[in-house]
Design brief:
Radius of gyration: 20 Å
Helix content: over 70%
Strand content: under 5%
Low-confidence stretches: 1-9
Strand order of the largest sheet: 1-2
Largest sheet: 2 strands, antiparallel
Distance between the termini: 33 Å
Order of helices and strands: HHEEHHHHHHHH
Length: 279
């Protein structure tokens, strides 16, 4: 190994603890900023809980659509998937676009903070808020709406890797999408329609098999459809797999599509996000 390579490697190893400490500190700052913004909390953190409550109450008179499966139970997996979309894509895309437009990234570029620390803060905030939202959503479904949650350990293991893969994918796509809005004022107008449209065509609000075939084919290109399908495999009985287009949960295809979008989001983020250093 050359001296220059050893120097660079040693410099990185020496700087890594400082980068990590700064990233952990950034998580705390990001969380405080997140929960001090009422519209962000409402439209990303509480929105899935409110929608599930509305659907659960509105369709309560219809009774069970299958033994042990109420309408609230049927909508729960879609709301879990939508929560990851809202927290990872909508919140992050709007937040980074605002910071870029208002000059925060340029100011940060004039400080010693590393881009790695910046993204550790963002990713940590997304993970923490997603876990808190998930806990609130599941508690609300079980306690208030009487939804029976899975009891098999293997289903919770499946849920864990779906959650981690899903939130990683949505985080990368949120960073990539933040490059689209031209200003902080247009960020919500650009991101919100995309997020809403994906929810309507991906089996979150409407039963996926009810959609025309051409719309199902369009939805199958995007990750939310597959994340919602994977979540249904956790929270709904195995008999509901026959309602999927292929008649099965297709978990291998779920993993593949989410992984493809994760890589695509990472590549797009590397090409579109610019850390502007001030001289």
């Amino acid at each position: 190994m050359s001296t220059a390579t050893m120097t660079r490697t040693g410099g990185f190893e020496a700087a890594a603890p400082g980068i990590l400490r700064a990233g952990v500190a950034a998580i705390g700052l990001e969380l405080r900023a997140y929960f001090r913004t009422p519209d962000t909390v409402f439209f990303t953190f509480l929105f899935p809980v409110l929608i599930l409550g509305i659907f659960g109450v509105a369709f309560e008179s219809m009774g069970e659509i299958a033994p042990g499966v109420t309408m609230a139970a049927y909508y729960l997996p879609g709301m879990v998937a939508a929560g990851l979309l809202l927290t990872g894509v909508q919140n992050l895309a709007v937040d980074i676009a605002r910071e870029k437009s208002e000059g925060w990234l340029r100011r940060l570029g004039g400080t010693p903070i590393s881009p790695v620390s910046y993204f550790i803060g963002k990713a940590g905030m997304i993970l923490v808020t997603s876990l808190a939202q998930l806990a609130l959503l599941l508690a609300f479904a079980a306690i208030v709406l009487g939804v029976e949650l899975p009891s098999e350990p293997e289903l919770w293991v499946r849920f864990a890797w779906l959650f981690l893969l899903g939130i990683a994918t949505m985080t990368m796509l949120g960073i990539a999408l933040s490059a689209v809005p031209r200003s902080s004022r247009s960020a919500t107008a650009v991101v919100l329609p995309i997020v809403l449209l994906l929810q309507f065509i991906s089996g979150v609000y409407l039963q996926f098999s009810m959609l025309p075939e051409w719309l199902q084919n369009i939805a199958a290109v995007f990750p939310l459809k597959w994340l919602a399908q994977g979540m249904r495999s956790v929270f709904l009985p195995e008999s509901f797999a026959t309602l999927e287009p292929s008649g099965a949960w297709d978990l291998g295809l779920v993993v593949l599509m989410l992984a493809v979008w994760l890589v695509a989001g990472l590549v797009l983020s590397l090409f579109t996000f610019k850390w502007q250093r001030r001289t």
